[in-house]
């Protein structure tokens, strides 16, 4: 049986961003499957790192993806018109950097990519 490539997306629960993010990750990184960990405005939750029960829940679900499915990529997603995190793009991109620090602290030994989904539902890597 051949090994399938997995990644995991920490994404907003907003249905508009699910398919674009999954399709982008599959194409850009050669993934077969993308596990979904969703919350409203997860970049804000992970950046602030205050809602410990929610942060631990995200961490637990990402760890399952990494340990059981062998996910090598963790995508952190922020998007235009987010109801759970109505901040503007500049603030959300800053939150992505802070969220990355939180995820790095989990020691999962995976590549972390930051993604922005724009007003046309196009996905962009945030450098």
Task: Name the features.
24% strand; alpha/beta; globular; 5 strands; 44% helix; 127 residues
Describe this structure in words.
By secondary structure, the chain is of the alpha/beta class. Helix content is 44%, strand content 24%. It has 4 helices and 5 strands; from the N terminus they run βαβααβαββ. The chain has helices at 15-29, 42-48, 52-69, 89-104; strands at 6-12, 33-39, 73-79, 111-117, 123-125. It has a 5-stranded mixed β-sheet with strand order 2-1-3-4-5. Helix 2 (42-48) packs across helix 4. The longest helix has 18 residues, at 52-69. The radius of gyration is 13 Å and the shape is globular. It starts with 5 loop residues before the first strand and ends with a strand. The model has no long low-confidence stretch (mean pLDDT 96).
Order of strands in the sheet with most strands: 2-1-3-4-5
Distance between the termini: 36 Å
* Beta fraction: 15-25%
The outline comes out as globular
The number of distinct β-strands equals: 5
Quaternary state of the chains: single chain
Q: Ranges with pLDDT <50 over ≥5 residues?
A: none
Tell me the series of helices and strands, N- to C-terminal.
EHEHHEHEE
Going by helix content, strand content and strand pairing, the class is alpha/beta
Mind summarizing the main beta sheet? 5 strands, mixed
Number of helices: 4
Residues in helices, as a percent range: 40-55%
Q: Could you tell me the mean pLDDT? A: 96
Instruction: Work out the radius of gyration.
Output: 13 Å
């Amino acid at each position: 049986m051949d090994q399938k490539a997995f990644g995991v997306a920490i994404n907003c629960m907003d249905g508009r961003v699910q398919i674009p993010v999954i399709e982008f990750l599959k194409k850009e990184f050669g993934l077969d499957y993308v596990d979904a960990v969703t919350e409203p405005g997860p970049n804000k939750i992970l950046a602030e790192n205050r809602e410990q029960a929610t942060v631990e829940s995200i961490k637990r679900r990402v760890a399952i993806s990494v340990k059981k499915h062998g996910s090598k990529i963790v995508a952190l997603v922020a998007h235009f018109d987010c109801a759970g995190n109505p901040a503007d793009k500049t603030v959300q991109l800053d939150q992505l950097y802070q969220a990355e620090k939180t995820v790095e602290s989990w020691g999962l030994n995976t590549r972390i990519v930051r993604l922005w989904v724009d007003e046309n539902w196009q996905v962009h890597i945030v450098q």
